[in-house]
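go over this chain:
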Amino acid sequence: MTSDILYLLIPFAVTLMLGVPIAMCLGFGVLVFLYFSGSLPTSVMSQQMYSAAASFPLMAIPFFVLAGSLMNESGITHRLVEFCKILLQRVRGGLAQSMVVTGTIFAGLTGSATADTAATIKILGPSMEREGYHKEFTAALAASTGVLGPIIPPSTIMIVYGATVGTSVGGLFMGGIVPGIFLGLLLMVTVAIIAKKRGYPKSNIPFTFSALVSGFKDASLALVMPVIILVGIRGGVFTPTEGGAVAVAYSLVIGLFVYRTLTFKKIFETAVSSGITAAIIMLVVAASAPFGWIISVGRVPAMFAETLLSYTTNPIIVLLLINCLLLIVGMFLEGAAIVLLMAPILAPLAKMVGIHPVHFGIIMCVNICVGMITPPVGVNLFVAAPIANVGMTQISRAVLPFLAALMIGLGVISYWPDLTLWLPRLLR
């Protein structure tokens, strides 16, 4: 069985290098394995795909994707941006700082790195260009801020991770809040250094308390939603899946009856686009299930753990090696696929050396998100570059300071578990 695993891995690797979509690569590898190995019935593929897609926790994914899209369409995101500009426009590089704060709040609404990247650069990009910010800086900052999307809950990556390895999704949601805010602060420090060095502008508009109150009033309904979802999930009022449905209902009520910016045409178009996005994620989940099951049956996770632990059982070194592996994998694969392929292998290993399951889940999530701005397959870079009308070479160079800041944050999160576990323990 162990040698037969090559029938699975080689077709997968070859099709991946040829640029075939990840779900197709996974499925092709499984088909080749089942055909040539003869050790398992072909019904394994359909059974595993169905059981993975029928998971109740994963039903939260389409709900949260739809809720985020409805928030964007209802105009809530524009109100958040205006509030952040009121708070920060008088500091050096104020618009750039507003982008980071806005992206941090967006992360608590959408859970999508690409959606947050696109939204922040579309809303703030033109203003920043008029103020004299370099286009590649704006694009790189939007891509880097988008990284926070799946770290601060709700998070589709956390939902997939929790369903894959049996870790509490509510615990992961709580565990991601402080690390996500910490990474946002690191990005703000980086922006401050670059803004001072380049002389980026600050606004001369005087601060007024009335403007602050007005901006907070406009943004308050958006700021309340993450609190409702997190308190409801952690308080046992509803499950993460039901929380996704609550988020959709809340977005509809705000858009239809409070702001009155949503039309039935917009709702239909948003539902279609969100359904396509959710379907892509679920297809990857379904295709990964038989792939991961075959790897497990072939004892690949156990052999990997035994081999690594034969060299060292030091959790510091083990975490360092795991981080390096995930960063490399994140340069080439999509987030959900990384979780589905690597979590069953790495989570048991982390548990063997005493790493808390929630802590390791956040470490894995942060690694995956950092990979979203790491060439050659930094998906956030591909989203931001065409919107800002900059080349991949320009944005790849401009993102390096932000990538360095996030790597520092990853190191702190990895080796300071209380940063992650403090809030889940407090709210237990």
Summary: The two ends are 43 Å apart (CA to CA).
